[in-house]
Amino acid sequence: MSEPWTIDALAAALRGYDGEFAVQPLAGDEPVLHVTMREHGDLAVFLSAAGDQIVASTLLWPVDEQESADAFNRFILKAQKVVPLSNFAITEVDGRDYYELVGELAAASPIEMIVLELRVLADNAISAADDLRTAFAA
């Protein structure tokens, strides 16, 4: 595909992956696609496509529930390589800060690359929840 993806085109393409993804466009100021990763415990991933990039993100856990949050924040900023192809962020949802994992790719990327990004992001989110979060528990 040489043209940038739209949310509707992404939804149609992802529906062709034999039920691996459940997809639902969400209305708003900027269209977003809610992707349920069925093979990753129904993890919710959100895709947006605007300008030259596609952004995939998933919420992890509330910042205020992270034990040793300062040490954890320093660790993830210094050791970003522990989650290849993904970046940690903090985003506010309903007045509460959450850790978020984010991946970006070009808006004209082939669907195979977008699917790979979704799978890697889901794997990294599960690893972060299983390994990183507990490593900083008291």
TrEMBL record:
It holds the Pfam family DUF2170. This is DUF2170 family protein. It comes from the Bacteria.
